[in-house]
Design brief:
The termini are far apart. This protein has 2 domains: about 60 residues; about 260 residues, 3-Layer(aba) Sandwich (Aspartate Aminotransferase, domain 2). It contains 14 helices and 11 strands. Helix 1 packs parallel to helix 3 and helix 6 crosses helix 8. Bound molecules: pyridoxal-5'-phosphate. The site of pyridoxal-5'-phosphate has 13 residues, from helix 6. Keywords: Aminotransferase, Antibiotic biosynthesis, Decarboxylase, Lyase, Pyridoxal phosphate, Transferase. InterPro entries: Aromatic_deC, PyrdxlP-dep_de-COase, PyrdxlP-dep_Trfase, PyrdxlP-dep_Trfase_major, PyrdxlP-dep_Trfase_small.
């Protein structure tokens, strides 16, 4: 066997070993001591690839966080499906530049196919354009860039050519409980965070439609949310989109994880009316369980999407060779990883029915967490568990309980502040989580709670 073949085979074996062990290792590393030392100083001389890889893996593996495993419940973090993981390894091996149909016809075609499938699964308009981006942050930025183009073009201003100096003012209307990446996107786009006119959220964290109506006054970008990152709440899309469009506004939906509710008949009602929006941001690496980094930006106005993103210029609207869309026209990067392969494989592994089943299972497991925790003395679940997110109060001891759970290594969940309360935040987004994993998580939380109460 060649050295390369040995190296790759050993590497794959190492990945397989890691993934097979992952559910038996502490979910968060006990310590990161020694990692820097093992990484060593800047090497002066070349080294054999196998040795380099061995040193890297030896140094880093003890410090990995078991996010691919079944008991990581922090933030909103998906695992990685087997086929998607393997396809991502192929993607690396093939090393295609997914800029257009010349740099990689295969990458362009696979994105085209997978993008069409995603629209179908998520109930988005079949004519929507799409870009495969790094994640929710990237998708929000692309959606809001298309919005910026569109709203200013309607005001007679070409923002791609003239920039924002001297442009008509652009209002951004968004819930006070919008995700932080919306603000970050507005910074990247030169609109600034002061451009946001906040709208009140209701008791569950969904946008207050009456307050939206009060704030709206002419053209603007309205940001709605499918899945509040704390509570999982959904905005009332039917009403909010109708009002926004009456005002000539563009509606962008941040559906990083929540848009996947549309993939299941059991939760689809939460997204009702969402197809009427103008742009949508969704993650692949969260609930679809594609490896990092993977997100999708969809747009109901392909020309505006392209005007905001294409490398060449807004006036080049040809489809390119063979009628295949150029992936690079819909994302901020020019040279980029071929993100379509892993998405195609994830959808291929689960199929439409399997995706629906995964979404339903995660929601059922979130309800299982909620029921068991709510039954504990002194513990309260504070949100309506409509999706995969659970917010739990342990009174004044919440932070100490969260820290104790994290230290246990049994599972990992973070803390948040929501509606003035410190809360444990649980997200069930991993395809491999089972009822037994939830029960083990509940036991770890109960043990942490008991230890904190004991210490008084
Ligand atoms: C996670 C998340 C984002 C950001 O997505 P990344 O993939 O981390 O860039 C945006 N909005 C919501 C609602 C999210 O949950």
């Amino acid at each position: 066997m060649s050295d390369l073949r040995d190296l790759l085979a050993d590497t794959v074996a190492r990945v397989a070993d890691y993934r097979e062990r992952v559910s038996d290792t502490p979910v968060f590393p006990d310590s990161t001591e020694g990692v820097r030392e093992k990484l060593g100083d800047l090497p002066e001389k070349p080294a054999p690839p196998a040795e380099v890889i061995r040193r890297l893996a030896d140094a880093v593996e003890p410090a990995l966080v078991a996010t691919t495993g079944p008991r990581y419940f922090g933030f909103v973090v998906g695992g990685s499906l087997d086929a998607a993981t393997a396809a991502d390894m192929l993607t690396t091996g093939w090393d295609q530049g997914a800029f257009n149909q010349i740099t990689s016809p295969a990458a362009a075609i696979v994105e085209d196919v997978a993008g069409g499938w995603l629209k179908d699964i998520l109930g988005l308009p079949s004519g929507a354009s799409f870009g495969f981006v790094t994640g929710g942050q990237g998708a929000n930025t692309v959606g809001l860039a298309a919005a910026r183009h569109h709203v200013l073009a309607q005001a007679g201003w070409d923002v791609e050519r003239r920039g924002l100096n001297g442009a008509p003012p652009l209002r951004v209307v968004a819930s006070e409980e919008r995700h932080a990446t919306i603000d970050c996107s507005l910074r990247f786009l030169g609109l600034g965070t002061d451009a946001v006119e906040p709208v009140r959220a209701n008791a569950q964290g969904a946008i207050d439609v009456a307050d939206l109506e009060r704030v709206l006054d002419g053209p603007a970008i309205v940001c709605l949310q499918a899945g509040n990152v704390n509570s999982g709440a959904f905005d009332d899309f039917g009403a909010a989109i109708r009002i926004a469009h009456e005002h000539g506004a563009w509606v962008h939906v941040d559906g990083a994880f929540g848009l996947w509710a549309a993939a299941s008949p059991a939760t689809r009602h939460l997204t009702e009316g969402i197809e009427g929006a103008d742009s949508w941001a969704v993650d692949g690496h969260k609930w679809l369980n594609v490896p990092y980094d993977c997100g999708y930006a969809f747009c109901a106005h392909p020309d505006s999407h392209k005007a905001a993103m294409s490398v060449t210029a807004a006036y080049l609207t040809g489809q390119g060779d063979g009628g295949v869309r150029a992936p690079g026209d819909f994302v901020p990067e020019s040279s980029r990883r071929a993100r379509g392969f892993a998405t195609w494989a994830a959808i291929g592994e689960l199929g439409r029915a399997g995706i629906a089943e995964m979404i339903e299972r995660c929601c059922a497991l979130a309800r299982r967490f909620a029921e068991q925790l709510d039954a504990c003395e002194g513990v309260t679940v504070v949100n309506d568990v409509v999706l995969n997110q659970v917010l739990v109060s342990f009174g004044d001891e919440t932070d100490r309980v969260v820290e104790a759970v994290q230290r246990s290594g049994e599972c990992w969940m973070g803390a948040t502040t929501w509606h003035g309360q410190r809360l444990m935040r649980i997200s069930v987004s991993n395809w491999s989580t089972t009822e037994a994993d939830v029960d083990r998580g509940v036991a770890a939380i109960q043990a942490a709670w008991a230890s904190v109460v004991d210490k008084g």
